[in-house]
Amino acid sequence: MFDIATIAVIFAIMITLYRVIKGPMIYDRVLAANAIGTMAVVLLVLIGFEYSRPHFLDLAVVYTLINFIATIAFLKYREKGRLD
Amino acid sequence: MDIRTIITAVFLGMGCFFIIVTSIGIVRFPDFYSRLHPAGKTDTVGQALVLIGLMIYEGFSMISIKLLIIVIFIFIASPTATHAVAQAAYLREVRPWKKKEKK
Question: Residue A25 and residue B94: Cβ atoms within 8 Å?
């Protein structure tokens, strides 16, 4: 059951990666990368349940925070040219 | 097969459906502002269905509390990030897509 869901999420990530590579503007790439980050959190949790290792949940929490901070920081750098 | 496994399978199936719909929508939609719409599907209902299904499978423990924390944080933070992307694109005057006139 978990392995089928894992394969489905990996498939969705591979489809979304097309927009990251080919996106016409930089905002398309940021949006697709943000979506891939959310899918990667789901993928981490599913892998943790598949191999019955609950430590992957901590990695998923940290990855959630990093994903949000990375998107906001990249947009701020793009808008103002600096991060301070 | 008990009833809890069946409920978990239904939740996982619906969540994976929404995640795959997100990926297809991001690739297929014509411009940036319309791509914001499928990107919000994984951020809210897709991940929430998958992780709530896993919470039902696990029962009440520390693992399900961590899953609930992940669900609540993504539910608040990821639409905020999507809004920030849209606002940045709007301030840079990205023009919306229009249907071509038929001649």
Answer: yes
